[in-house]
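Posting for a labmate who doesn't have an account.
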Amino acid sequence: MANISMESRMSTTHSNISNSKKDHNQHGAVIEEIEGLIKVYKDGYVERPPIVPNVAAAVGQELNLFCKDVIIDKFSNLWARFYVPKCQGKQLPLLIYFHGGGFCVGSPSWICYHEFISKLASASGCVVMSVNYRLAPEHRLPKAFDDGFNSVMWVKQQATMRSNNDQRWWLNSCNLSKVFVGGDSAGANIAHNVAKRIGAAGLINPLTLRGIILVQPFFGGEQRTYSEKYLAQPPNSALSLTVSDVFWRLSLPTGSNRDHQFCNPLAKGATRLEDLRIPPVMVCISEMDILKDRSLEFCNAMRRAGKSVEQVMFMGVGHAFQILHNYQLSQTRTHEMISHIKAFINK
């Protein structure tokens, strides 16, 4: 039961594009599209071409990891891919990680995420739980936040269960007094909002949240920043302003604009940063990312609110460089990012 078939993953995302052109015409006109990633039709049908291969939970022997998929909630297709370093008798920090993709695409089984997370787990010496949450527009925000919070509560439930089962094989390797939440892009937004909920909910014994890792957090706002206006088509970057706008239209609650607090944590009406009960935060920023200025504004606002923030800038690279690896500099910066994450976790 712990292993999830590729067929079950693909069937829930409408990624199957074997339908004929005639079948597609029955759905009406395309009303939103990001070429190669997603099409949304007038009748609500969503098509996600398999532009990124999905891979099974297997890693090379050189990484010295156990890797396996585990079902969290079969009714909502909530599952996670666990990466557990082979350190017998040693308990390791746990990082609960959320992938990017504008809340609309992506999966822990995407080869780019599988390769990045396996390297991160191996190099940092921590257990990584890579979460598959529900996607918009079928499941608009806050559904992804709900899934993120429920993933943390599931870990708590597993830790307090007295009976053994096949889903808890990873638990003996975890030091639950050192739990981190993190993610990149939309996943970083999810991590931030999950941490807010954890703080508001109070104790989550036996888990102790020690830190938050935000990699190129996908925040937005109605007023354009300098980097959004002048880095609108940056080279070697996975995000443009046009793509960002489509993602927000598809993921925010219907009728909301980009100053909704799900998008803009600094907007009027959003939870005051001073009121957040959160542990130290690390924010990874890319110099050539259109989101650079939003990340810098967020870091500055968090410091003014008295929060502990570690800010790291990665020079010469764009959004999601750590999963693109399309040129040598991105690979170098990815090694640097993993080193920074490892240091933050092991403080």
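Reply:
Got it, the structure tokens are right above this. The first strand starts at residue 30 and ends at 34.
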